[in-house]
Structure formats: C-alpha cells, structure tokens
Amino acid sequence: MLIDTHCHLDFKDFKDDMGTVLKRSIDSGIRFIINVGSSMEGTVRSIRIAGENDFIYAAIGIHPHEADSVTENDIKLFAKFLNKPKVVAIGEIGLDYYKNISSRENQKKLFIRLLETAKPANLPLIIHNRDAHMDIIDILKDVIGSSVSGVMHCFSGDEKFLKTCLDMGFFISFTCNITYKNSDKLREIVKLVPMGRLLIETDAPFLAPQDFRGKRNEPMYVKYAAEEVARIKGISFEKVAKITTENAIKLFKF
Ligand code: NI
Predict the structure, then answer these.
(1) How far is the CA of 191 from the centre of ligand 1 (A)?
(2) What is the pLDDT of residues 110-124, one digit of tens each?
C-alpha cells in the first residue's frame, strides 16, 4: 500500500486516459492520491477530480510561476475553497528562483497572501521551493511561525537546509528523481531524513523514474521512489510503504 502525496492528474497529459491511469494506480497498490492544484483553474479541476474518486484528495494552491498573472478574484476563489470537502492541504505554493517565470517580487507577494488567507483553516502546507531556501523560511516564520505543519515537496536542498526544515517540523518528500543516475547528492540527503518524516510522491506528469525518463510519469510509479528509499536506507520495501503511508495519513489526516 502506497500513497502518492503529490501529482497533477488535472494536467492535459491525462485528459485522454485518466480512467486507465487511475485503474492502474489502484491495481498496483496505491491507497490514496493527493492531486495538487498549481493554478486556480487547476485547483477547480483538482477539487472536481477528488469529488469523483473516493481515493483522491485535493490540495488547493497557486504555483509561484503564476504570480505575475494572479488576480484578486483568484484569491477570493482560493479563500472560498478552504472549507470544501476533500481539501486536505494548501499547495503547491512557494517560490521558484530557478525558472523565474514570474518576478521574485510578485512570487513573494503571492506566497505571503496565500499563507495569510489560508492560515485560519489550519491545513498542512505543500511547499514548492527552487533555489529560494532562505526567503521561504523567512516568510514562513513571519506569517506562520517557527513550527509548521507541512511538507517540503520534491526536496532539493543541502544538509543545512534539511536541518532547518526538520527543526521547523516539516516532512520531507522525494520524487522518482532520486532514481536518476546523476542524483548522488540527493540520495545522500535521503539517508539523512528520519523515516518518521519522509514522504514519497511522483509529481506526475513530471519526473518519471530512470527507467521511463522523458516519458509521462503517473501515480503507480511512486513505487520506484519507495524502492529507491528502501535501497538507500537498507530496509525493506514493505517497511518504506508502511511508514510513508502512516506519515502521509498523520500529516494529511485522510
Ligand atoms: Ni508539483
């Protein structure tokens, strides 16, 4: 039994065969999926997909890439969705200083605005962070405090940043990119994360595992992330499945 804690089934990549993809997920032992919103349109679709499938839950959020084009109406809609059934998390939200698709100023404004709006709902946060470690932490400490319920999705920091995140109470999530040939540094980080704080995800349609690199990723491939964690930690696949499932249930309270 596995949980894919982060994927994007609302993307057009899945529009022709979502039923088949979901069936394959269940057949391969996926217990729950969290479909993560990355724009307001995506969030609307995310809530709909969760409503149509018992084993799918929704996270609501606006990705930092969207920061330049976000409207006041988007924020109002976001606020309205906080209490919808099956919404289990806020995300993905954060900062992306790697691609810089929106200006850093607007990314920070959006991140702060979403955190402030979501704060009263007290839902766990799914944080997207690329090359923005200190700004992420500073903003979280300012708006939420030094103890946070949430997950650093697709973790990409160093040992020092890992310690900061663990000290704040974060779960640390890894995608199938830990299977890549050039991911030695990331595998060293996996070693350092206590099992009680580790989550797995696909981020599908992105980041397909090494064997399928360049192709579309999908929830059933989360097992490749679990297998790699088992190999790195020197424990059984079953143990990784059990602990990461318990961790996800603890954080997202399914
Ligand atoms: Ni994502």
Answers:
(1) 23
(2) 999 999 999 999 999
39 CA → ligand 1 middle, Å: 11
Question: 79 CA distance to ligand 1 centroid (A)?
Answer: 21
- Ligand 1 centre to CA of 234 (Å) is 28
Give the bridge partners for 33, in sequence order. 4, 56
pTM, rounded to two decimals: 0.97
DSSP the chain: -EEEEEE-TTSGGGTTTHHHHHHHHHHTTEEEEEEEPSSHHHHHHHHHHHHH-TTEEEEE---GGGGGG--HHHHHHHHHHTTSTTEEEEEEEEEETTT--S-HHHHHHHHHHHHHHHGGG-PPEEEEEES-HHHHHHHHHHHT-S---EEETT----HHHHHHHHHTT-EEEE-GGGGSTT-HHHHHHHHHS-GGGEEE---BTS---GGGTTS---GGGHHHHHHHHHHHHTS-HHHHHHHHHHHHHHHH--
The per-residue pLDDT for range 31-75, each reduced to its tens digit, is: 999 999 999 999 999 999 999 999 999 999 999 999 999 999 999
pLDDT in tens, 144-159: 999 999 999 999 999 9
**How far is ligand 1, taken at its centre, from the CA of residue 32, in Å?**
16
Mean pLDDT of 209-231: 97
- Residues around ion ligand 1, judged by CB within 5 A, are 203
188 Cα: distance to centroid of ligand 1 (angstroms): 22
